Automatic annotation (TrEMBL), chain A:
<feature type="transmembrane region" description="Helical">
    <location>
        <begin position="190"/>
        <end position="209"/>
    </location>
</feature>
<keyword id="KW-1003">Cell membrane</keyword>
<feature type="domain" description="ABC transmembrane type-1">
    <location>
        <begin position="59"/>
        <end position="243"/>
    </location>
</feature>
<keyword id="KW-0812">Transmembrane</keyword>
<keyword id="KW-1133">Transmembrane helix</keyword>
<dbReference type="GO" id="GO:0005886">
    <property type="term" value="C:plasma membrane"/>
</dbReference>
<dbReference type="InterPro" id="IPR000515">
    <property type="entry name" value="MetI-like"/>
</dbReference>
<feature type="transmembrane region" description="Helical">
    <location>
        <begin position="58"/>
        <end position="85"/>
    </location>
</feature>
<comment type="similarity">
    <text>Belongs to the binding-protein-dependent transport system permease family.</text>
</comment>
TrEMBL record, chain B:
<dbReference type="InterPro" id="IPR050166">
    <property type="entry name" value="ABC_transporter_ATP-bind"/>
</dbReference>
<protein>
    <submittedName>
        <fullName>NitT/TauT family transport system ATP-binding protein</fullName>
    </submittedName>
</protein>
<keyword id="KW-0067">ATP-binding</keyword>
<dbReference type="Pfam" id="PF00005">
    <property type="entry name" value="ABC_tran"/>
</dbReference>
<dbReference type="InterPro" id="IPR003593">
    <property type="entry name" value="AAA+_ATPase"/>
</dbReference>
<feature type="domain" description="ABC transporter">
    <location>
        <begin position="26"/>
        <end position="256"/>
    </location>
</feature>
<keyword id="KW-0547">Nucleotide-binding</keyword>
<dbReference type="InterPro" id="IPR003439">
    <property type="entry name" value="ABC_transporter-like_ATP-bd"/>
</dbReference>
<dbReference type="InterPro" id="IPR017871">
    <property type="entry name" value="ABC_transporter-like_CS"/>
</dbReference>
Length: 251, 277
């Protein structure tokens, strides 16, 4: 009984989702749009539910690319931050490069990336890595800069060298910051993967969206958007859960 | 035979290889900090202090009198602007490089992700030595943290964290132990108990120790000599020899002689603070 009640109470929190669907339906009906312009929610949801088996390979591809890109971007950003922290000379090289990568819109970068690493999968993955790289870089750097003075003092009186300060102190102090970066970039990684797929990929939700649109299969196209949103939300929730666990372990 | 002769004799027995004479020599040390825009702050003015091997010296003084600066100079964490400091006849930071220095900081500086055991084992790892598990266990017992070996710092009380921090400072059996108000944040009862424990630990290890504190009782319970410092810039006002027999239990702390010395030093501190105001 109590379990049922708490389940119902949990459902109440989903009111924004319900609101979105109601507003969507009202918007289509009130404007008198045909399904070619904008389909109503019900056929879209039906398409997703009935055709879920057809969505599945695309979902798993996009999810895979997003996660690998997230991991890769985080590692590259982390490594770049460590390099910048360790050496002022290298900081002068890495920091401007990182800023430039950050400042150029990813949509403008994708064709260039594709030219360099090849169309298709490598370009999709590289774009995702680039999107995830900068937050990891900035957050790790701020984590390393926030090593408390007493920590530095401790390693000095213990006779530790800079490498030990980094390995035994800095890396672990940077972990909570790094997890914040993972949480905020995780949904963006899905977006970046889809964008790259949309522009040049043959696989994934982005490609499925582009393909459905060209066949005027609007239920499928909107279904992809719906699925992508759901995937993003779950990736975010997963990242947040991971962050909570990891931060509890290192602080 | 006075207590100090007994102690010196013991120290020689315990450390036959160590150099005789002064462990720490501070000569005319001045420290000026730059505050930026050409402004400076003189923390220390001409401090002279010699600390013998095996001696326990407490430095007391009002907040901001430069007592922690003296400790940081001895630890090699800061260098004097003028004057000189030698630790065992060498540059202070050499002692740290040789892993012969133990420091317990005001903020315990324990690694939050590591257990008590791992925190105490850290000096071994940083020194590139195999962790002496027996020594770590012995220290855990010495500071009374048995049963909390696997606890992380956030699971411990303030007093327990300080004890873990002291155990870490003792891990490599250092030649010099520096304690920077390690009990500053503790309540009076815990503090008294920690003083008794520190006195016991020191009795067993007989390490040359400098303790910075603003608690006169604490200084008198623990130290062979008490250095009273004045406010900014920090100068040594008086060095008092403390001859009460050890261990200094309630009989000592309730004695009129103890109270007289507490009153005398407190009066000095009051004057100092008066000047500061």
């Amino acid at each position: 009984m109590t379990r049922a009640l708490s389940f119902l109470r949990g459902l109440v929190h989903l009111w924004p989702v319900v609101l979105v669907f109601v507003a969507w339906d009202a918007w289509v009906v009130l404007n008198g749009y045909t399904s070619t312009v904008a389909p109503r929610p019900f056929p879209v949801v039906t398409d997703v539910v009935i055709g879920f088996g057809e969505y599945l390979p695309y979902i798993s591809y996009t999810l895979g690319v997003a996660l690998v890109g997230l991991l890769g971007g985080t590692l590259v950003g982390f490594a770049a931050a460590v390099v910048v922290w360790s050496s002022a000379a290298l900081a002068g090289v890495v920091t401007p490069a990182a800023l430039i990568i950050r400042s150029v819109p990813i949509t403008a970068l994708i064709p260039i990336i594709a030219r360099i690493v090849g169309y298709g999968d490598p370009a999709v993955l590289t774009s995702t890595v680039l999107i995830c790289f900068f937050p990891a870089f900035v957050f790790t750097l701020s984590g390393l800069a926030a090593i408390p003075a007493s920590g530095h003092d401790l390693f000095r009186v213990l006779g530790g060298n800079k490498l030990q300060v980094l390995a035994r102190l800095g890396v672990l102090y940077a972990v909570p910051n790094l997890m914040v970066s993972v949480r905020i970039t995780a949904p963006t990684a899905v977006l970046a993967a889809m964008l790259a797929e949309f522009l040049m990929g043959a696989h994934g939700l982005g490609a499925l969206f582009s393909e459905s649109r060209s066949y005027m299969d609007m239920e499928r196209a909107w279904g992809v958007a719906l699925v992508a949103t759901t995937v993003s939300v779950f990736v975010f929730l997963g990242a947040r859960a991971l962050e909570n666990r990891v931060v509890a372990r290192v602080t | 035979m006075s207590t100090s002769t007994i102690r010196t004799a013991q120290a020689e027995v315990d450390r036959p290889a160590a150099r005789p004479g002064a462990a720490v020599t501070i000569r005319g040390a001045e420290k000026v900090f730059s505050l930026g825009r050409g402004r400076t702050l003189q923390a220390l003015a001409e401090v002279d202090l010699e600390i013998a091997e095996g001696e326990f010296v407490a430095i007391i003084g009002p907040s901001g009198c430069g007592k922690s600066t003296v400790l940081r100079l001895a630890a090699g964490l800061d260098t004097p602007t003028n004057g000189a400091i030698e630790v065992f006849g060498d540059d202070p930071h050499r002692l740290a490089k040789q892993h012969r220095l133990g420091v317990a900081f005001q903020e315990h500086a324990l690694l939050p992700w590591a257990s008590v055991r791992a925190n105490i084992a850290l000096p071994f790892q940083v020194a590139g030595r195999r962790v002496d598990k027996a020594r770590v266990d012995e220290l855990i017992q010495l500071v009374g943290l048995v049963g909390f070996e696997d606890a992380r710092p956030k699971q411990l009380s303030g007093g327990m964290r300080q004890r873990a921090s002291i155990a870490r400072a003792l891990a490599l059996s250092p030649d010099l132990l520096l304690l920077d108000e390690p009990f500053g944040a503790l309540d009076a009862v815990t503090r008294r108990r920690m003083n008794a424990e520190l006195a016991r630990i020191w009795g067993e290890e007989k390490i040359t120790t400098i303790l910075v504190t603003h608690d006169v009782d604490e200084a008198l319970i623990l130290a062979d000599r008490v250095v009273v410092m004045t406010g900014r810039p920090g100068r040594i006002r008086k060095i008092a020899k403390v001859d009460f027999p050890r261990p200094r239990g309630f009989e000592t702390t309730r004695s009129p002689e103890f109270h007289d010395l507490v009153d005398e030093l407190t009066a000095l501190l009051d004057q100092v603070e008066g000047v500061d105001d």
